[in-house]
Amino acid sequence: MTQHNRAIFQPSGQIQFGIFFQGVNSGTIWKAAEAGSQTDFESFRHIVQTAERGKFAAFFLGEGLRLREHLGRPHALDVVGRPDAQTMLAALAAVTTNIGLVATQNTTYNDPADLAHRLSSLDLISGGRAAWNVVTTDNAWTGANFRRGGYLDHADRYKHAEAFVETAKRIWDSWETSSGPARRVLHEGQHYTVDVTPRLPRSAQYRPVLFQAGDSPEGRDFAARQADVIFSAHPKFDDAVEFRRDIVARSVAAGRGANAVQIMPASEFILAATDQEAQEKKAWVRSLQIGPQQAIAYLEQFWGRELSSYDPDGPLPEIDPVVEETSETRGSGFHGAKARQLADQWRAEAKDKGLTIRQFVTSKTARIDATFTGSYTAVADHLAEYARVGAVDGFNISPWLIPTGLDEIVNHLVPELQDRGVYPMEYRGTTLRENLGLETPVRSDEAVRA
Ligand SMILES: Cc1cc2nc3c(=O)[nH]c(=O)nc-3n(C[C@H](O)[C@H](O)[C@H](O)COP(=O)(O)O)c2cc1C
């Protein structure tokens, strides 16, 4: 390909699916009679094998290292505990053959020599199906559990992340080749030191595929330089097209091709045989996602006080929040806003739209922008349009029910997409890199010899 071509984005005309099995969240209906457990292996086995039957590219686990707490209790919207990602993915490797296994791991509290080794282990165990979703983790209450305490400033987190990922790549690159023995990797930086010779050979896909999640300009530039796939927060069509344009520009500026970084936004699907049934189902799903207690608990995060005497089906509390500013322990939704100002704004918004507490909280917490609701055929037509223009490379789907939430997607939506020629009929290969259509990295001295 010429330099000119590499700078112009070429849509693949295809989309792929990943499954995002959530832990800490309000999107999965854990309390429904049909819901499984977030810790039983059977939940994971059912969902990963369903995904593989539907030719999903990847099974994805996020990372929440500490529960959010407020008023001295774990946050009522959070699921209490979910097994460690790498342990679970190693077990899932044994009951699957083709699907990629993505572990979210942060760069702020890990160390590169150790993490590179653990990810290599997963990559070898799975026959080249491992991926690492690189995140920096944006809260101090997580940091309080690590020996350094606290956490890094935003700008420092990405500097640290860059050095971390480059060091991990150097370790993966340093295994012996026909041109020489394994090489020692030395790094002495502000946050960690490394003096390591790799202990494991390359996997069938060379090294784990790198995902990235983090949406600031620094996060996007970091992804443009380092990542293979972005787990994005931009699923809506126009927003997805704009995000693609932005990432293409950043990856070309970083000296990589326009197609170097794939994009898979977070998404939710509420499907049925007809559009009307799907709309009715959506109302039911939403009512279960945010029950009365969850609605009150959500507001308590921001108000900093007990609100249990308020009617979840009534208006937002007239009483003011007890604090002016939130602390970082009080939930990720806040992001430094002033509590009283926010309460005024929300009361006005809820009044304007005629929303009760529960309806208002649902509108704030549900994946409103990320939800595809409709008949199988209507949603398939809509997704085919994403494929045609190359708005995304795929979707990372959060099922609203575990473990059966993917069944209708695999049984009904996937065949509709296959009929339209926009979704794989089969896995291309056995490694994640092959199945995503990513190029194999080449070590610089090998490139010279080749
Ligand atoms: C779609 C998406 C998913 C994320 N998933 C996780 C996660 O599972 N665990 C985590 O610690 N952080 C997660 N993050 C947060 C990132 O770690 C990052 O700290 C945060 O987005 C702040 O970086 P930013 O300012 O670049 O967005 C996620 C971010 C996005 C956009």
What does it look like?
The chain has 450 residues and is α/β, with parallel strands linked by helices. The protein has two domains: 3-275 and 370-449, Luciferase-like domain (TIM Barrel, Alpha-Beta Barrel); 291-365, no CATH class. The protein is built from 16 helices and 13 strands. The chain has helices at residues 3-6, 41-53, 85-93, 112-125, 140-143, 154-173, 217-226, 237-253, 275-289, 292-303, 339-353, 357-365, 376-389, 407-419, 432-436, 444-449; strands at residues 16-21, 58-61, 69-70, 73-74, 100-106, 130-135, 185-188, 193-196, 209-212, 229-232, 262-272, 371-375, 394-397. The protein has an eight-stranded parallel beta barrel with strand order 1-2-5-6-9-10-11-13, surrounded by seven helices. The chain has a two-stranded antiparallel sheet with strand order 3-4. α7 (217-226) links the parallel β9 and β10. α3 runs parallel beside α4 (112-125) and α4 packs across α6 (154-173). It is globular, with a radius of gyration of 22 Å. The mean pLDDT is 90. The structure holds flavin mononucleotide. The site of flavin mononucleotide has 17 residues, from β5 and α7.
Relevant terms:
450 residues; alpha/beta; 2 domains; globular
According to CATH, the homologous superfamily of the largest domain is Luciferase-like domain
- Content of β-strand: 5-15%
Task: Kindly give the count of domains.
Answer: 2
* CATH-level-2 architecture of the largest domain: Alpha-Beta Barrel
Distance between the termini: 17 Å
State Rg: 22 Å
CATH class of the largest domain: Alpha Beta
Q: What is the β-strand count?
A: 13
| Unreliable residue runs | none
Please report the number of helical segments.
Answer: 16
